[in-house]
Amino acid sequence: MLLRKLSPRLGVGEGQILSHSHRYAETKAIEDRSEDRRQRRTRRSSQALCLVLLLRHCHHHRRYVHHISPPPFRPDQRPIFQIPQNRHLSLIPIQPPNPNTPIMEVEVKLRLPDADAYRRVIDLLSPFHVTTHRQENLFFDGAANELSSRRAVLRLRFYDNDTRCVVSLKARAVLVDGVSRVEEDEEELEPSMGRACVAEPEKLLSVECRILKRVKEEFGVLGFVGLGGFGNVRDVYDWKGLKLEVDETRYGFGTCYEIECETGDPEGVKKLLEELLKDNGIDYTYSEASKFAVFRYGKLPE
């Protein structure tokens, strides 16, 4: 009825009015869909900006890691980085590493029978030589054997005429088939202070040092005694990406020769070293005791 009344006044037919109405409705629907998409893009942009700022803050402080579930999308859609409404960003606090947590040192240890085998290894590896260190190793126990009774030992190692000193705490050593595993904690110490402690072991109680504090607190050490030590000449080589250390260890009762290599793949490295020695006709055996154990035993391995 309304169209019939308007048609004569507007000078158009009823069909034209309906056509215009349909086009207007379609245009309005398109505009509404465009506005809806624009609002969704704005929300996604805001969410992404907040996430970037948050992750930058977390990365700066290095206190959290983030876990984000990927948003679902249809195969015909390009995935859009967003946080779905039914998902959330979870921040998991990470505790800072405990400096008192010991590191498990894993080494391959092959013993050379004599000076001749040692010299042949040195000559064989000479193209890969990196450096040579002259070490002095001195050991300490608690006055009441607090360390040795728990299979631990404290060591001061001096390098190259006191250019460097490292204090080490080693514990629970296991050596099987030429593979050594031992808990090790190390820290640099001023060489002059180290020498003062060698002269008077009781000074170890007053030295500001994380490891010495740990020894006192965890092992209940109230006093220290010196156990003596030995010298070592260590040649370092970079061979096939491995750091090889060839040692000439001088005790008061004789000299030992050994190849060491710290690695995360002891069996693989041991195989490589054995092939090297066998191919060049160099005798060797698996080490059965640590240098410190040989020192305490007071006799060279058979």
What does this structure look like?
This protein is an alpha+beta fold. It has 2 domains: 92 residues; 195 residues, Hypothetical Protein Pfu-838710-001 (Beta Barrel), CATH 2.40.320.10. Helix content is 36%, strand content 33%. The strands form 2 sheets. Strands 3-7-6-5-4-8-9-10 form an 8-stranded antiparallel β-barrel, surrounded by 5 helices. Strand 8 and strand 9 form a beta hairpin. This is CYTH domain-containing protein. GO terms for molecular function: pyrophosphatase activity. Pfam families: CYTH (PF01928).
The rough form would be described as extended
Radius of gyration: 37 Å
- Which strand order spans the largest sheet, edge to edge or round the barrel? 3-7-6-5-4-8-9-10
CATH architecture of the largest domain: Beta Barrel
Strand content: 25-35%
Describe the secondary-structure layout.
Blueprint: H1 2-10, H2 14-61, E1 64-67, E2 90-93, E3 103-112, H3 115-125, E4 129-142, E5 152-159, E6 164-176, E7 179-188, H4 191-199, H5 210-219, E8 224-239, E9 242-251, E10 254-262, H6 266-279, E11 285-286, H7 291-297
Antiparallel strand pairs: 1-2, 3-7, 3-10, 3-11, 4-5, 4-8, 5-6, 6-7, 8-9, 9-10
Descriptive labels:
alpha+beta, 33% strand, two-stranded antiparallel ribbon, Hypothetical Protein Pfu-838710-001, pyrophosphatase activity, 302 residues, CYTH_domain, 11 strands, 8-stranded antiparallel β-barrel
In short:
The chain has 302 residues and is an alpha+beta fold. The chain is 36% helix and 33% strand. The strands form 2 sheets. Strands 3-7-6-5-4-8-9-10 form an 8-stranded antiparallel beta barrel, surrounded by 5 helices. A two-stranded antiparallel sheet has the order 1-2.
